[in-house]
Amino acid sequence: MKSKSHNKVVGDAASVPTKKSGSRRLPLQRKRNIRSRISRPFVSATFAMTVDGKITTRNFGPVDFTSREDKLHLFRQRALADAVLIGHSTLKRDNVRLGLPDDLKAARLKRGQIQAPSRVIVSNEGKIDSQLKIFQSDPAKTGPILIFSTKRMPRQFQSALREKNATLHLSETKDVDLAEMLRTLRRDYKVRRVACEGGPILFRSLLALGLVDELNLTIAPYLFGGADAPTLTGLSKKFLPASVHCVMTSMRVVGDECFLTYRIKKKR
């Protein structure tokens, strides 16, 4: 039996209320928000979670609990971006290439984009295994690899990763400055849209800094339970610095899964 698909669009992410009269000058904070968006790429995060909000099990192992449609949804979001962003822990755990199917590569070329987006890895310590699958693929076909880390990265790792044609950006700071990383992607690589694919620690860090613009969320028909299984923002018991207000812009139901898109509302 074929699954039924219901589509519903809620709101308009591009709509902005306008005043009929009064000054046309923008408030100072809104000007700052606009300048911030211009100086960095648009950041869209994509996650799948269970009905009880878990994105994996307590051992953080790869869990295949979503449908083929969800996997295609992830590929489509990846294909829209100029760069795909992933944290080292997630990359090591899932061991993915971050590539694209041939039809989505062809669609990118028709849109005037390069065949595949850049693949961006974030790691504070930089102990990244050069034998991971992502380094065994041809950057010309699956996208160049950019690594943002710190001077804490051991020299042997630096040499091994450069041999795999990865471009290293090593900062003097203890941890990677995520805001500066995004500015570098925009300024030096002309990246306008970033697809963040996790993990939860990286997502939480970006969220806390106000660096996420959109959240694509798939709700899968499962319950995992357990306090030790991470949610979207990881396992931290601490609250975010401030509540994050999400505005739903679309909702799509396919079979037993619900595909939601939220715009992250910026503080004024």
Please give a quick description of this structure.
This protein is 28% helix and 23% strand. The protein has 268 residues and is of the alpha/beta class.
Indicate the topology.
Layout: E1 5-8, H1 28-39, E2 42-50, H2 68-80, E3 83-87, H3 88-94, H4 102-110, E4 118-122, H5 139-142, E5 145-150, H6 155-163, E6 167-171, H7 178-189, E7 193-196, H8 200-208, E8 214-220, E9 246-254, E10 257-264
Parallel strand pairs: 2-7, 2-8, 3-4, 3-7, 4-5, 5-6
Antiparallel strand pairs: 1-9, 8-10, 9-10
Helix pairs in contact: 2-4
What fold name goes in the CATH topology slot?
A: Dihydrofolate Reductase, subunit A
Q: What top-tier CATH class fits best?
A: Alpha Beta
| Range of strand content | 15-25%
SSE succession: EHEHEHHEHEHEHEHEEE
Q: How many E strands? A: 10
Low-pLDDT sequence parts: 1-23
Approximately how much helix is present in the residues?
A: 25-40%
Strand order of the largest sheet: 1-9-10-8-2-7-3-4-5-6
Query: C-alpha Rg, in Å?
Result: 19 Å
Number of domains: 1
CATH architecture: 3-Layer(aba) Sandwich
How far apart are the first and last residues' alpha carbons, in Å?
49 Å
Structural class of the secondary elements? Answer: alpha/beta
Mean pLDDT: 88
Biggest beta sheet summary:
10 strands, mixed
Which overall shape is indicated by the principal axes computed on the Cα atoms? globular
